[in-house]
Design a protein that fits this description.
Shape: elongated
Strand content: 5-15%
CATH class of the largest domain: Alpha Beta
Helix content: 40-55%
CATH architecture of the largest domain: 3-Layer(aba) Sandwich
Number of strands: 15
Bound molecules: zinc ion
Largest sheet: 4 strands, parallel
CATH superfamily of the largest domain: HUPs
Length: 451
C-alpha cells in the first residue's frame, strides 16, 4: 500500500485506506492563469489518486475554487482587484480563469475531482461554520462586524508547520497589530464590506476569509474525518494551520489523517513569480511546440517533495522521452502479444508505493526499454499498464506506426542482442541487411530505433 510523507507526523506513513479514500486539495484562486509551478500540486493529488485506484481503492476527491476572499498582503481581495484591472465583472473574470484552469489540468491528464465547489456558491456553508465556532467560543465578533478566530482556544496550533504560537512574532506581515484582535495571530473568518461580491450574514454584509473556505468545504463534501489533505508547501503556514484549527475546533477531533505537501518549483533557478518576470504557463510550453504532457513528465522525473528546478532544456528532454516512448509502444504493439514483464512492473509499483518515488519508477522503465531479454510484446503490456499511473498517453501512436516488412522485426531483435553482447560485426551485418529491406536503424543511448 502507498506510504507517503505526512508533514504533521514528520515521517513517511502508510496511507490507511480501506476500499475508499477521501482527499481534499486546496484549489486555485481564479483571478489569473495558473502557472506550471501551481499545477505541480494538482499532479501530486492525481498521482495519489492513480496509485490508490490501481489498488482498487475508490478515491473521492474535493478541490475548491476560490472565487472570493483570497487577500493580498495589502489586504485587498485578489479577485476583486484583478477584475477592476481587467475592467470585467468579478463573475466573468472568475469563470474565465476557472475554465482556463480546467483546460490546463485536463491537458495534464489530471482526473477531475468529484467535487469542485466554488466559494461564491457555498457562502451559506461558511456562515454556518463561523456561527458554530462563535457559539463554541472559538471565534468572536467585534463591533465593526468582523469575526476573528480565537487561536488561543486551540492549543495544538502549529502542529503541522512547527510554528508554535508562543514563538510567533506579532505583526508577521503588517507593521501594526490589529487592535480589534484579542491575540496578534487571530485571523478573520468574516470581513465587513459593502459592494460587489458581498453577502448578508448575522454579522452584517461582507465576505468570508480565505482560510474558512477550505474547512467549510472539506467538512461539507468529505465529512468530519478524511484521510488525505494535499497542498503546496507554501500553504503549510498559515493556511493549513488555520484550516486545521477551524475544522478540529468545530467537530471536536482531528479531521485530517495525513497532511501531504508538494515542494516548490523553480524556473531557471528562481521562484516563479510575476515580480521576477519568469512565469511560465502551460500555453507557453505548447506554443514552444512541446506536448503539454512533457510538463507532467518533467514533474515525474522529480519526487514531489524535492524542489524542482525546471528549465526549457529539461522540458525539451522530457518532451523527447514522451515522444520516444509513444513511438516505442507503437513499435512494440506490432509484435506478438506476450504477458507483462511482471518483475519490472512490480519494481515500478513498489517505487510508486515508496512515497511516490517517480524518478526511480522512470529509471526502471528506461532499464526495461533497453532490456533485450524482454520480448517487445511484454514491454508493450508493461508500459501501458504503468501508464495508468504515469498518465502520459503512451498509446497514442499505436496504429500510426509504419509496419515493418516481414522478417525485419526478428532482425532488429537479433541486432539488439548482438549489441548487448558487444558483437559489433554482427550488429553491422544486420544493419546492412535491414537497410536492404528499407529499414534504417539508428542507435541512441536508449537502444536502437528504426524508421
Ligand atoms: Zn485550502
Amino acid at each position: 500500500m502507498l506510504r507517503i510523507y505526512d508533514t504533521r507526523a514528520r515521517q513517511v506513513e502508510e496511507i490507511a485506506a480501506g476500499r475508499a479514500l477521501r482527499m481534499y486539495t486546496c484549489g486555485p484562486t481564479v483571478y489569473r492563469h495558473a502557472h506550471v509551478g501551481n499545477l505541480r500540486t494538482y499532479v501530486l493529488s492525481d498521482l495519489i489518486r492513480r496509485v490508490l485506484e490501481r489498488r482498487r481503492v475508490r478515491v473521492l476527491a474535493c478541490q475548491n475554487i476560490t472565487d472570493v476572499g483570497h487577500l493580498t498582503d495589502s489586504g485587498a481581495d485578489k479577485v476583486l482587484e484583478q477584475a477592476q484591472a481587467e475592467q470585467r465583472s468579478v463573475r466573468e473574470l472568475a469563470r474565465f480563469y476557472e475554465d482556463a484552469f480546467k483546460d490546463d489540468t485536463a491537458a495534464l491528464n489530471i482526473r477531475p475531482p468529484e467535487h469542485m465547489p466554488r466559494a461564491t456558491e457555498t457562502i451559506d456553508v461558511m456562515i454556518e461554520l463561523i456561527a458554530k465556532l462563535i457559539e463554541q467560543g472559538h471565534a468572536y465578533v467585534v463591533p465593526d462586524g468582523s469575526v476573528f478566530f480565537d487561536v488561543q482556544t486551540f492549543p495544538t496550533y502549529g502542529d503541522i508547520s512547527g510554528n508554535r504560537l508562543d514563538a510567533l512574532k506579532p505583526a508577521h506581515r503588517i507593521d501594526t497589530v490589529d487592535p480589534r484582535k484579542r491575540f496578534h495571530a487571530d485571523w478573520a473568518l468574516w470581513k465587513p464590506f459593502a459592494g460587489e461580491l458581498t453577502w448578508d450574514s448575522p454579522w452584517g454584509r461582507g465576505f468570508p476569509g480565505w482560510h474558512v473556505e477550505c474547512s467549510a468545504m472539506s467538512l461539507r463534501f468529505l465529512g468530519s474525518r478524511f484521510e488525505v489533505h494535499v497542498g503546496g508547501i507554501d500553504l503549510r503556514f498559515p493556511h493549513h494551520e488555520d484550516e486545521r484549527a477551524q475544522s478540529d475546533s468545530a467537530v471536536g477531533h482531528e479531521v485530517v489523517r495525513h497532511w501531504v505537501h508538494g515542494e516548490h518549483l523553480l524556473f531557471d533557478g528562481r521562484k516563479m513569480a510575476k515580480s521576477t518576470g519568469n512565469v511560465v504557463l502551460l500555453s507557453d510550453v505548447v506554443a514552444d511546440g512541446l506536448d503539454p504532457l512533457a510538463v507532467r513528465m518533467a514533474f515525474l522525473e522529480h519526487r514531489y517533495r524535492q524542489q524542482l528546478n525546471l528549465t526549457w532544456d529539461t522540458l525539451r528532454a522530457a518532451d523527447r522521452t514522451v515522444r520516444r516512448w509513444r513511438a516505442r509502444v507503437a513499435e512494440w504493439s506490432e509484435s506478438p502479444s506476450a504477458p507483462m514483464a511482471s518483475e519490472y512492473a512490480q519494481r515500478v509499483e513498489s517505487a510508486f508505493d515508496d512515497d511516490l518515488d517517480t524518478p526511480s519508477a522512470l529509471r526502471i522503465l528506461r532499464e526495461l526499454e533497453r532490456d533485450p531479454s524482454v520480448a517487445p510484446g511484454a514491454k508493450f503490456e508493461t508500459f501501458l499498464h504503468i501508464d495508468q499511473v504515469l498518465g502520459l498517453d503512451l498509446s497514442t501512436e499505436i496504429g500510426k506506426a509504419r509496419v515493418l516488412p516481414p522478417g525485419a522485426g526478428e532482425l532488429l531483435e537479433a541486432r539488439a542482442r548482438a549489441r548487448t553482447a558487444g558483437d559489433w560485426g554482427e550488429s553491422d551485418r544486420l544493419r546492412d541487411l535491414l537497410a536492404e529491406m528499407g529499414v534504417r536503424v539508428a542507435d541512441t543511448p536508449e537502444g536502437q530505433t528504426w524508421s
